[in-house]
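The instructor's notes for this session suggest beginning with a concrete chain rather than abstract definitions. Hand out the sequence below and ask the class to guess, before any prediction is shown, which regions might be ordered.
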Amino acid sequence: MLKEAFRPLYFWLWEDSLGSVPIGFVQRAVVEQLQQMPPELRGDIVIDDSGSVGNIKLILGGSTVEDRSKFIEQVTQHWRKQQTFHILSTWRNEPWPIYDREGQLCLNVERSAAGLFGVNRYGVHMTAYVKNASSSHGIKIWVPKRAATKSNYPGMLDNTVAGGLMTGEDPFECIIREADEEASLPESVVRTLAKPVGTVSYIHITDKRAGGEAGLIYPEFQWVYDLELPDHVIPVPKDGEAESFTLCDIEAIQHNLALGRFKPNCALVMIDFFIRHGILNRENEVDLDEICRHLRRTLPFPGPRQTPQP
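After discussion, reveal the predicted structure:
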């Protein structure tokens, strides 16, 4: 059995009527900072090192979502003011949801703090493309380059549109909002032509490119959309997230994927697009089934899920 001092990771346990359910990964450095906080700020902490995996319970105080959310915010705001964790310098004022095993909202946590608690994150990704008879596979794809000033993955390649899903936000409404903000795509076009094509799910462990501390664990669930654009509709940067959009053929995208130029989860969504459109298939990829399994991992914590994949 590992002693407490040597445990790198703990399960964050949530108590409900059926007992305890894990809702996040809490790293040792975070546990240590929780223990060092004034009791009136952090509440009670129960650490269990009796099993093969460590567990931590945070007694957040209050019986409502609002009370619990306020409590965890005072913890993260304290760390932000003390500059305890670099990731909190990217504070967004965006509440992200944490759910129990019945899919009910437990509490909200600030977006930039989600990785400190290793909770599920939710988002949307959309690939916009145009028909092009002279190109291989008959299409070209709009690929943005992330702004060099981005705090995470600056200058890397992205999906046409992507964004995080705030608490209570509908995925389709989110992709419409992000399409306007990031790519100047008219709502009428996106609402009419964007098609929901399934989901992807994975666990991402950050490195130095992500901004903030390396090694943060992000279980993520993404709603995915395709958008076939008419030739005259051209994505244009608007809010500074992207510095440019390029209409790329499939070979150029494959080349950039191989060189690791895509943001990691955007590479995953692009591969999902290739499979769905027959670009990647059993004739040219012997590991297709394994790739498909990795595109839709079973996440370790409860939360909303999409219908079965096509």
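Then share the key points. The chain is about 25% helix and 30% strand. The first strand starts at residue 9 and ends at 16.
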